[in-house]
Amino acid sequence: MGVKLDEPELGEFLTSGHTLILATTRQSGEPFLTPVWYVYANGAIYFSTPAKTAKVQHIKRNPRVCCMVEDGERWVDLRAAVLNCDAHFVADDSAEAQEFAKLIASKYAAFRPKLKAAPKTTKKHYSGSNALIKLTFAESEVRSWYNRKIRGMTD
User: What is the pTM of this model?
Assistant: First the structure.
Protein backbone atom coordinates (compact mmCIF):
# COMPACT_ATOMS: atom_id res chain seq x y z
CA MET A 1 0.00 0.00 0.00
CA GLY A 2 1.36 3.41 -0.98
CA VAL A 3 0.88 6.68 0.82
CA LYS A 4 -0.72 8.33 -2.22
CA LEU A 5 -4.42 9.19 -1.98
CA ASP A 6 -6.43 7.11 -4.44
CA GLU A 7 -9.05 8.84 -6.62
CA PRO A 8 -11.99 8.51 -4.17
CA GLU A 9 -9.78 9.58 -1.23
CA LEU A 10 -8.49 12.58 -3.20
CA GLY A 11 -12.04 13.65 -4.11
CA GLU A 12 -13.19 13.40 -0.48
CA PHE A 13 -10.10 15.25 0.75
CA LEU A 14 -10.48 18.09 -1.76
CA THR A 15 -14.21 18.34 -1.02
CA SER A 16 -13.72 18.55 2.73
CA GLY A 17 -10.59 20.75 2.74
CA HIS A 18 -10.95 24.25 4.11
CA THR A 19 -8.21 26.43 2.60
CA LEU A 20 -6.33 26.07 -0.67
CA ILE A 21 -2.88 27.61 -1.06
CA LEU A 22 -2.63 28.96 -4.61
CA ALA A 23 0.73 29.58 -6.29
CA THR A 24 0.78 31.93 -9.26
CA THR A 25 3.79 33.49 -10.97
CA ARG A 26 4.71 37.16 -10.78
CA GLN A 27 5.91 38.92 -13.92
CA SER A 28 9.45 38.66 -12.48
CA GLY A 29 9.11 34.86 -12.35
CA GLU A 30 8.86 34.70 -8.57
CA PRO A 31 6.17 32.48 -7.07
CA PHE A 32 3.27 34.24 -5.34
CA LEU A 33 1.31 32.26 -2.71
CA THR A 34 -2.20 33.12 -1.58
CA PRO A 35 -4.69 31.28 0.65
CA VAL A 36 -8.20 31.08 -0.82
CA TRP A 37 -11.50 29.48 0.09
CA TYR A 38 -12.60 27.08 -2.62
CA VAL A 39 -14.97 24.34 -3.62
CA TYR A 40 -14.20 21.10 -5.40
CA ALA A 41 -16.98 20.08 -7.77
CA ASN A 42 -17.27 18.12 -11.01
CA GLY A 43 -13.57 17.23 -10.91
CA ALA A 44 -12.38 20.85 -10.74
CA ILE A 45 -11.49 23.44 -8.12
CA TYR A 46 -13.31 26.79 -8.10
CA PHE A 47 -12.59 30.00 -6.22
CA SER A 48 -13.70 33.59 -6.46
CA THR A 49 -11.56 36.64 -5.77
CA PRO A 50 -11.77 40.37 -6.37
CA ALA A 51 -11.02 40.97 -10.05
CA LYS A 52 -8.31 43.55 -9.36
CA THR A 53 -6.11 41.28 -7.22
CA ALA A 54 -2.55 40.38 -8.10
CA LYS A 55 -3.42 36.69 -8.47
CA VAL A 56 -5.95 37.51 -11.21
CA GLN A 57 -3.37 39.55 -13.10
CA HIS A 58 -0.83 36.73 -12.72
CA ILE A 59 -3.33 34.17 -14.06
CA LYS A 60 -4.19 36.39 -17.03
CA ARG A 61 -0.50 36.47 -17.89
CA ASN A 62 0.21 32.81 -17.11
CA PRO A 63 -2.69 30.42 -16.49
CA ARG A 64 -0.43 27.62 -15.18
CA VAL A 65 -0.76 27.50 -11.40
CA CYS A 66 0.01 25.11 -8.58
CA CYS A 67 -2.10 24.63 -5.48
CA MET A 68 -2.05 22.68 -2.26
CA VAL A 69 -4.59 21.53 0.30
CA GLU A 70 -3.21 20.05 3.51
CA ASP A 71 -4.25 19.00 6.98
CA GLY A 72 -3.03 17.19 10.06
CA GLU A 73 -1.17 18.34 13.13
CA ARG A 74 0.72 15.22 14.20
CA TRP A 75 3.21 13.71 11.73
CA VAL A 76 1.16 10.55 11.34
CA ASP A 77 -1.87 12.67 10.42
CA LEU A 78 -0.14 14.81 7.76
CA ARG A 79 -2.08 14.65 4.52
CA ALA A 80 -1.73 16.79 1.43
CA ALA A 81 -2.51 17.11 -2.25
CA VAL A 82 -0.39 19.28 -4.55
CA LEU A 83 -1.90 19.87 -7.99
CA ASN A 84 -0.48 21.51 -11.11
CA CYS A 85 -3.45 23.16 -12.79
CA ASP A 86 -4.65 25.21 -15.71
CA ALA A 87 -6.70 28.23 -14.62
CA HIS A 88 -9.78 29.30 -16.59
CA PHE A 89 -12.04 32.31 -16.05
CA VAL A 90 -15.73 31.39 -15.75
CA ALA A 91 -18.42 33.76 -17.06
CA ASP A 92 -20.42 35.39 -14.26
CA ASP A 93 -23.76 34.60 -15.88
CA SER A 94 -23.09 30.91 -16.54
CA ALA A 95 -24.84 27.97 -14.88
CA GLU A 96 -21.39 26.95 -13.64
CA ALA A 97 -21.04 30.28 -11.79
CA GLN A 98 -24.50 29.91 -10.26
CA GLU A 99 -23.65 26.41 -9.03
CA PHE A 100 -20.37 27.67 -7.54
CA ALA A 101 -22.13 30.52 -5.71
CA LYS A 102 -24.48 28.05 -3.99
CA LEU A 103 -21.67 25.65 -3.09
CA ILE A 104 -19.31 28.30 -1.68
CA ALA A 105 -22.12 29.98 0.30
CA SER A 106 -23.04 26.66 1.87
CA LYS A 107 -19.47 25.51 2.60
CA TYR A 108 -18.33 28.74 4.29
CA ALA A 109 -21.59 30.08 5.79
CA ALA A 110 -20.29 29.73 9.35
CA PHE A 111 -16.96 31.41 8.55
CA ARG A 112 -17.94 34.58 6.67
CA PRO A 113 -17.02 37.89 8.30
CA LYS A 114 -19.50 40.68 8.84
CA LEU A 115 -18.15 43.19 6.32
CA LYS A 116 -20.47 45.93 7.57
CA ALA A 117 -18.16 46.26 10.57
CA ALA A 118 -14.95 46.13 8.49
CA PRO A 119 -12.65 49.12 7.93
CA LYS A 120 -13.33 51.24 4.83
CA THR A 121 -10.30 49.89 2.96
CA THR A 122 -11.46 46.31 3.50
CA LYS A 123 -14.99 47.15 2.35
CA LYS A 124 -13.57 48.86 -0.74
CA HIS A 125 -11.34 45.86 -1.56
CA TYR A 126 -14.32 43.48 -1.50
CA SER A 127 -16.92 45.81 -3.05
CA GLY A 128 -15.77 45.56 -6.68
CA SER A 129 -16.43 42.84 -9.20
CA ASN A 130 -15.14 39.33 -8.68
CA ALA A 131 -13.45 36.84 -10.97
CA LEU A 132 -14.54 33.21 -10.78
CA ILE A 133 -11.64 30.92 -11.56
CA LYS A 134 -11.79 27.21 -12.36
CA LEU A 135 -8.70 25.06 -11.89
CA THR A 136 -8.48 21.87 -13.93
CA PHE A 137 -5.85 19.20 -13.53
CA ALA A 138 -4.86 15.82 -14.90
CA GLU A 139 -4.33 12.84 -12.61
CA SER A 140 -0.68 12.83 -13.68
CA GLU A 141 -0.36 16.37 -12.27
CA VAL A 142 -1.35 15.38 -8.71
CA ARG A 143 1.07 14.55 -5.91
CA SER A 144 -0.56 13.42 -2.69
CA TRP A 145 0.22 11.62 0.51
CA TYR A 146 -1.28 10.58 3.80
CA ASN A 147 1.26 9.44 6.38
CA ARG A 148 -1.35 7.27 8.11
CA LYS A 149 -1.23 5.00 5.04
CA ILE A 150 2.40 4.06 5.73
CA ARG A 151 2.50 0.47 6.94
CA GLY A 152 2.63 0.36 10.75
CA MET A 153 1.86 4.06 11.22
CA THR A 154 -1.07 4.19 13.60
CA ASP A 155 -1.81 5.95 16.90
Answer: 0.89
